[in-house]
Write a structure and sequence with these properties.
The chain is about 20% helix and about 40% strand. The chain has about 525 residues and is an alpha+beta fold.
Length: about 525
């Protein structure tokens, strides 16, 4: 009986093995069943999607599943998921081939799509961005920006490959419509522009140059000669959510709307804040506040001012030819006289005003004149230039005759009589210096002036230094500016030790502080 029982058990085991063999055999080419060998479970966000053999390339299956989903949706997908593989070893687990695994992953990932992104072309101008469905829409948008300044539609937007060779970056430029028609701009279905004719930039530049070098038959140039965007306009392919597509009319308002942007202005000689404000379409109070100035007068030559200038994101630079008539005056003819100082001049012949027709090339940025150059003129009445004789010698300068001292009395009426100089109180023995170089013509006691020195200067002026205790120079001696000529004192008509200083021009006393400061 034991022997029979054993025989039945063996038969049962044999049947089980045989059945398992047929299960595996019938699994087909798309899957197989684990009978105890190790494999891997594939999880998406912690949920099991399928199982596959250890050698299955799960990463590739994920990539292929995502690629096919993107192709089916005709756009770039935004998905949020994590996947992982976990080793396993359970019998009778169905193991998928890579092709079947890809299909299983597609179904799992389809549920992970957050939103579908659409392919667009983004217009980038510094910090400004706008998204359009096609390059054709980009052209229409940019053509509308320039339309108010181009009523004849003489210029068109051209989109070219970027010179920097950065992949996918394009440049939008304006060129004459007739020139744009000659440019073979090849657009592939993907939106790329690989076939722009070599040298198109040179052709556009040459067109502008030809316009300047070959004016009309009468020698005049008028109307719009060139038009371009001031800012660099970049265009590139992008993928965005559907709600990020731009409305063309709204963007047209936004990109041409004036917004405040800070610029640096360097103060020039003769500038005042009111003129600076007018020139930059702002206010004096705005400039004072931005630069924390004490008041409107506290600016100096060379100072850098921050100015809030209203400007749009995209500006047009227009070069135009203008023809008009005007009165004009020729620049005077200067005849140099090497024996005169530069502040000496005499008009030898009066000039006359003429009349002419002139042709200017003017550059405007957003309607504001940037530069103007006359390229042609037709003289109707000739202007005769004035003839001016002018000196070439730089006149001498004047300095305070002592170091330190306390200013006690100025130039003008004092005590019922004229005080012809200025006074500085100082201790007896203070060194007195020549205010300017020249020749000593007096060095002696002179009545109320006491011990005084008088110097004659090359520009014809005289200086006097009075009330000295001691004189250090003699008549006829040549002295340099800053050279010691006396020691201060209180000689002559004096109420205490001080230096009395005078300047004479053409024989008349003038206020010394107007020439040396105090």
């Amino acid at each position: 009986m034991h022997k029979i029982k054993f025989t039945r058990k063996a038969a049962v085991q044999s049947a089980v093995v045989t059945a398992a063999f047929f299960v595996v055999l019938l699994a087909g080419v798309s899957e197989r069943t684990a009978i105890g060998q190790p494999y891997q479970n594939i999880l998406v966000d912690g949920q099991k999607v399928a199982a596959a053999g250890r050698k299955a390339d799960v990463a590739r299956a994920v990539r292929e599943a995502r690629r096919e989903l993107s192709a089916e949706e005709a756009g770039r997908l935004c998905m949020d998921y994590e996947w992982e593989t976990v080793p396993a070893r359970e019998p009778f687990e169905k193991l998928l081939t890579e092709e079947a695994l890809k299909e299983a992953l597609k179904e799992a990932l389809r549920e992970k799509i957050i939103n579908k992104r659409e392919r667009v072309y983004t217009v980038a101008i510094d910090g400004y961005r706008a998204n359009f469905k096609s390059l054709a829409e980009v052209r229409v948008f940019l053509d509308k920006v320039k339309a108010p300044a181009d009523e004849q539609n003489a210029y068109q937007t051209l989109i070219l490959k970027d010179d920097s060779h950065i992949s996918g970056i394009l440049n939008a430029v304006l060129t004459e419509a007739e020139k744009a028609g000659q440019t073979q701009e090849i657009i592939l279905p993907g939106g790329q522009i690989p076939g722009v004719v070599a040298g198109v930039w040179a052709a556009v530049a040459q067109a502008v140059e030809d316009h300047s070098l070959n004016p009309s038959e009468d020698g005049y140039q008028s109307g719009v000669l060139d038009m371009e965007f001031v800012e660099d306009v970049k265009v590139y392919e992008n993928y965005v959510n559907a709600d990020q597509l731009s409305d063309m009319e709204e963007e047209l308002i936004e990109v041409t709307k004036e917004k405040e942007s800070n610029k640096i202005y360097v103060v020039e000689s003769g500038d005042c804040l009111s003129v600076i404000a007018i020139d930059h379409d702002t206010t004096v109070s705005s400039i004072v506040a931005l630069n924390q100035l004490a008041d409107a007068d506290s600016i100096r030559e060379g100072q850098e001012l921050v100015i809030a200038v209203p400007e749009p994101d995209l500006k047009l630079r227009i070069t135009a030819g203008e023809v008009y008539e005007e009165d004009y005056t020729m620049e005077p003819v200067i005849r140099e006289n090497d024996s005169w100082f530069t502040n000496q001049e005499v008009v030898r012949q009066e000039g006359t005003t003429g009349h002419r027709e002139r042709n200017d090339v003017v550059v405007y940025e957003n309607g504001i004149e940037i530069s103007r150059e006359m390229i042609h003129e037709n003289i109707m009445t000739e202007s005769v230039p004035a003839i001016i004789e002018r000196g070439t010698i730089i006149p001498p300068t004047y300095i305070k005759p002592i170091s330190g001292g306390r200013y006690t009395s100025g130039f003008g009426r004092r005590w019922g009589r004229m005080h012809t100089g200025v006074d500085w109180a100082c201790p007896t023995g203070t060194t007195v210096y020549a205010s300017s170089g020249g020749t000593v013509i007096q060095a002696s006691y002179n009545g109320g002036y006491g011990n005084n020195v008088v110097i004659s200067h090359p520009d014809g002026r005289l200086t006097r230094y009075a009330h000295n205790s001691r004189l250090l120079v003699r008549v006829g001696q040549t002295v340099k500016q800053g050279e010691a000529i006396a020691l201060s004192g209180s000689t002559g008509r004096s109420t205490g030790p001080h230096v009395h200083f005078e300047i004479y021009i053409n024989g008349a006393a003038v206020n010394p502080l107007n020439y040396i400061g105090n």
